[in-house]
Amino acid sequence: MLLAGSPCPPAGLEEYRGCGARRGAEDQGVKVPWQLGRGPSAFIPLEEILQEGAQSSRHQLLVEAFVSAGRVDNITMVMGLHPQYLSSFWKTQYLLLRMDGPLPYHKRHYIAIMAAARHQCSYLVGLHMGEFLQVGGNPAWLQGLHCAPQKLRNLNEINKLLAHRPWLITKEHIEALLKTGEHSWSLAELVQALVLLTHYHSLASFVFGCGINPEEEQDGKDGLREVEVLMERMKLLQESQLEEEGVTQEEMATRFELEKTESLLVAPSDLSEHSLQSNVLCFVEDPEFGYKDFTRRGEQAPPTFRAQDYTWEDHGYSLINRLYPDVGQLLDEKFQVVYNLTYNTIAMHCGVDTSMLRRAIWNYVHCVFGIRYDDYDYGEVNQLLERSLKIYIKTVACYPEKTTKRMYTQFWRHFKHSEKVHINLLLLEARMQAALLYALRAVTRYMT
User: Fold this and answer.
1) Tell me, what's the pLDDT at 305?
2) In whole angstroms, what is the distance from residue 230 CA to residue 234 CA?
3) Are strands 349-350 and 345-346 parallel, antiparallel or unpaired?
4) Predicted local confidence at residue 294, as pLDDT
């Protein structure tokens, strides 16, 4: 079984099975009841998801999911638009939740609840409350964080920082959790917890970014020009790169600072205050604490995280693999799959090299979290990412609970929904890697 879902959904949810699985699974002789209502996403028409589902590799993945888990959840249906990524995501999440590891199963689900609650993601909170009970968790803990053991409550501070301002994490935060005492964590337990927290913070971004509907509750011309402009800019950038071989490090640094400062101006115009639901609020302490721009006018900014000083490839990967075997390999595969995922298409154009665009999205997410690549020209971000797209990316990455359908529809109006889902996968993984790098750097500093 490679799903977060378990063979038996929580009581009352039996009738809400995955809607898109019906066509594929019934072809295999599996009877699948229709999910009531609109489908897996409030942003993406159900017909598009079903139409894309005809692809054989995705078809097989969804049938396998239904047969093994008894359900196909909405996240799986939408992620399934990119089967290669979905397969990698499943393997990682299955290892985190189901395979041997330092933490007991019920505590893994409770940590998932704590992480999702930071972004007011009732979808994930509800899902893992059900999972928590199914693996034998104490129902009293679900009354709120104040009813959980002190050891889990001690994760609150690092959960809060990882979700909203990971650059503030220091070796002292790690030391406080590991210090000898009744409620102390082992290093292996803490690393698993850090991976779970970053996984579910980022998955909350995906849920809001793609408008994922709750399982139990189902209630032309300008666009063409937009595509052409982006194609032209990519072409011009490729040409100018050949001419700009000798750009100085000082100039590159200036461009990063310019992009970092400009990101302050990228704020959604239609942010609405999101009222916390009581079933989520009880798992959150200090609910007012949220994302704060890495660089703020008139304030002393923390030092920029130079990507070359602590990389995933050279530092994070080996540290995780040493303390939590196998997960480093799966995370690395997942990062690589999404970063390199391409169909060589943009809207109606085929045979397009999209690597420059994918890199711009990835590096922009890292930029808003204060991570800078010395060898990257941040001028590309402004050239390739229109303002409405930057607003969407920053909202989904930094305060996903404030994402609206209007933001989703305003960018790339002539692109396929699967391409917008692709952006969300890049966002999910870039955000997770950024937070993990800050956390693992603090662990490394504690150890040395």
Assistant:
1) 86
2) 6
3) antiparallel
4) 60
Per-residue pLDDT of 271-328, as tens digits, reads 444 444 667 888 988 888 888 876 655 555 667 888 888 999 999 999 999 999 899 9
Q: How does DSSP classify residue 168?
A: G
Whether the CA torsion 255, 261, 266, 269 is positive or negative: it is: negative
**How do strand 371-372 and strand 305-306 relate by DSSP bridges?**
parallel
User: Taking a C-beta distance cutoff of 8 angstroms, is the pair 18, 74 a contact?
Assistant: yes
**How far is residue 35's CA from residue 25's CA, in Å, rounded to a whole number?**
14
3-state secondary structure of 89: helix
Of 121, 282, 367, 398, the catalytic one is: 121
19 is catalytic: no
What pLDDT, in 10s, does the model give residues 33-84? Answer: 334 446 899 999 988 887 765 566 676 777 666 655 667 889 999 999 999 9
Low-confidence ranges of the chain (pLDDT < 70): 1-38, 52-57, 59, 63-70, 216-249, 251-253, 255-278, 294-302
For the record, the structure tokens of 272 come out as 């609405």
Q: CB of 127 within 8 A of CB of 97?
A: no
Instruction: Give phi and psi for 440, each to the nearest 5.
Output: -70, -30
Angle at 330 between CA 324 and CA 335, to 5 degrees: 120
Half-sphere exposure of 292 (CA within 13 A, CB side): 15
The Cα 377–Cα 384 span in angstroms is 12
**Nearest residue to 175 (alpha-carbon basis) of 160, 163, 197, 157:** 157
Question: 252 vs 37, 258, 326, 372, CA distance in Å?
Answer: 50, 10, 37, 10
For residue 350, give the H/E element and its range: strand 349-350
| Residue 111 CA from chain centroid, whole number | 16
3-state helix, strand, coil in the chain (%, to 5): 60, 0, 35
CA separation for the pair 386, 192 (Å, rounded): 37
DSSP-assigned states of every residue in 183-232: TPPPHHHHHHHHHHHHHHHHHHHHHHHTTBPPTT----HHHHHHHHHHHH
Dihedral of the CA atoms 174, 175, 177, 181 (nearest 10)?
A: 170
d(CA 62, CA 17): 12
8 A C-beta contact, residue 324 and residue 102: yes
